[in-house]
């Protein structure tokens, strides 16, 4: 089994790559439907990429190493997606923005800075958990597949 520090760099690289692909495909209207069809493939590919980077660094790769580096990749991907998605909502890119979103949910409520900060933190947590669950499953499967194929 590999050391955790050996797995960290491949997981970060793979997580950043799939986060960039995810957002590039999400905000290109021409290929939006393609991204929806292949979302799981990006995540499987991220796990495979992390496994191949770890194999290149370590030499020999066990299945547990592939699973762990896949899980770390999913964690990095989910953190990046939550941060970027919250920033996009705050700026109002592609939507009505945070204030418009909150007004749509609770039209009778008065909004101040504290309410907006709470909504942003709740949105960060929700986006993280919402993306972590499926990405964890698919990246771990991709990591195991990558470890098995690269034996």
Distance between the termini: 14 Å
Mean pLDDT: 81
Q: Give the overall shape, derived from the CA principal axes.
A: elongated
Q: Supply the number of structural domains.
A: 1
**Poorly predicted runs:** none
**H/E series:** HHHHHH
Radius of gyration, rounded?
Answer: 18 Å
Helical proportion, percent range? over 70%
Oligomeric form of this entry? single chain
SS strand fraction: under 5%
Structural class: mainly alpha
How many beta-strand runs? 0
Question: What characterizes the major β-sheet?
Answer: none
Number of helices: 6
Description:
The protein is mostly helical and 151 residues long. It has one domain. 82% of the residues lie in helices and 0% in strands. The protein contains 6 helices and no strands. It has helices spanning 4-26, 32-37, 39-58, 63-91, 97-105, 113-149. Helix 4 packs antiparallel against helix 6. The longest helix is centred in the C-terminal third of the chain and has 37 residues, at 113-149. It is elongated. The model has no long low-confidence stretch (mean pLDDT 81).
Give a quick rundown of the structure.
The mean pLDDT is 81.
Secondary structure blueprint with pairings:
Elements: H1 4-26, H2 32-37, H3 39-58, H4 63-91, H5 97-105, H6 113-149
Defining key terms:
151 residues; mainly alpha; 6 helices; elongated
């Amino acid at each position: 089994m590999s050391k955790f520090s050996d797995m960290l760099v491949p997981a970060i690289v793979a997580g950043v790559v799939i986060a960039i692909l995810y957002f590039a495909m999400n905000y290109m209207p021409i290929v939006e439907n393609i991204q929806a069809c292949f979302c799981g493939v990006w995540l499987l590919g991220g796990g495979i990429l992390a496994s191949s980077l770890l194999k290149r660094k370590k030499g020999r790769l066990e299945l547990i190493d592939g699973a762990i580096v896949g899980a770390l990749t999913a964690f990095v991907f989910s953190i990046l997606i939550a941060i970027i998605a919250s920033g996009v909502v705050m700026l109002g890119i592609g939507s009505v923005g945070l204030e418009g979103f909150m007004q749509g949910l609770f039209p009778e409520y008065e909004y101040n800075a504290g309410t907006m900060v709470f909504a942003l933190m709740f949105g960060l947590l929700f986006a993280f958990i919402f993306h972590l669950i499926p990405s964890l499953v698919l990246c771990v499967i991709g990591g195991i597949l990558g470890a098995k194929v690269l034996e």
